[in-house]
């Protein structure tokens, strides 16, 4: 699943909102993220950041793609466990005049835990678009 939209903000502004886990609950269109500790800003492939979900569970997010200001992707996992195979990805394409095309993708084609399939199917294009809309509102207000 993926969604794309233009945002009236520079890519660097948008990327900061994505790469700082403490700010992610502000734009999460799945209403799944409750909080993340400050100081976990993602800087490279191999980084791991932790978030608390609205149901109280924790997730370790393993960064698998990183290009400062352009691309960020991670695989979530239960603490201490191997990621089961789904990926959250953000891609930013700078456009003219401080605008950015942003694509948000949820890829569960390699998800191995069948117990997560129902939740994966519930992550629709509309929910991804909701995250994009919330992210745009934050970025455009900066």
Automatic annotation (TrEMBL):
CDD domains: SRPBCC_7. It comes from the Bacteria. SUPFAM superfamilies: Bet v1-like. Pfam families: Polyketide_cyc2 (PF10604). This is SRPBCC family protein.
């Amino acid at each position: 699943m993926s969604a794309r939209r233009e945002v009236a903000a520079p890519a660097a502004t948008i990327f900061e909102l994505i790469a700082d886990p403490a700010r992610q609950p502000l734009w999460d269109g799945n209403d799944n993220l409750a909080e993340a500790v400050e100081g976990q800003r993602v800087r490279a492939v191999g980084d791991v950041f932790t978030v608390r979900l609205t149901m109280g569970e924790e997730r370790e997010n393993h960064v698998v793609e990183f290009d400062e200001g352009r691309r960020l992707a991670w695989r979530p996992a239960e603490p201490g466990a191997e990621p089961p195979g789904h990926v959250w990805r953000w891609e930013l394409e700078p456009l003219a005049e401080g605008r950015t095309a942003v694509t948000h993708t949820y890829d569960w084609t390699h998800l191995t835990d069948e117990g997560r399939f129902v939740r994966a199917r519930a992550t629709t294009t509309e929910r991804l678009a909701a995250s994009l809309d919330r992210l745009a509102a934050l970025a455009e207000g900066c």
